[in-house]
Amino acid sequence: MTGECSFQPGDWALVLGASSGFGAATSVELARWGLDIFGVHLDRRATLPNAQRVQEEIASLGRRAIFFNVNAADEEKRKQVLASIKQQVEEGGGQGMVRVLLHSLAFGSLGPYTGGEKSPPLSQQQIEMTLDVMANSLLYWVRDLVDMNLMREGGRVFAVTSAGGHKVWPAYGAVSAAKAALESHVRQLALELAPKGITVNAIRAGVTDTPALRKIPGWEEMLRRAQQFNPHGRAGTPEDVARAIAVLAHPDTYWITGNVIGVDGGEDITG
User: Which of 35, 104, 120, 195 has the most CB within a 10 Å radius?
Assistant: First the structure.
């Protein structure tokens, strides 16, 4: 089915976290399906080639790639990016829109809540930052897109969550809380945007070998368990998730909204 979805000329996808992991894979997959890509990422010099590689792959598919290397959780940067996006859409005749928004921001603080002899507890600032970046920023981006008429009927919003929204893992508390909050935001946005013809869903990916996973203490054991318990006998890949998102972006999925959709090969029901 890959590449069969026909979007309107001038339609775009906006991917938050576009330079690696799920964001990178989905950027390329949506380009394969016919969307031009706006990408927001935060990379220093050492990891900047990742973003450049993704842009080159999108261009090789004949689609446009406009990337912004900024902090997606910064209000002023968000407004600047959206102003640039609006200008690009209007220069294209104003008929296009941001058809798909993917929120795939994986920047948060890892550590215990209560602390111990070797590990100090997370600070209030660290916990609030994690919630703001990994959960609350979804609300602000969606609200601005809709208010600026950049997303309207037929729009699709996806937010990447994980089993951490309902399971625990050492040092994962703040991220787990953010995932739970993210899923709550998805439900509320789905309720409020249904009259506008915009769907909002969370994509619950399984344990996947990404740069974000490798920052979690004990990630090797998480990956081993995923490989052991997944009915498919392997862990998922970013491409597995990207393909599912592309299918769910199809215009005929207008009745699917407000859900946490598992895209994990059955990992969550067995692990």
Answer: 104
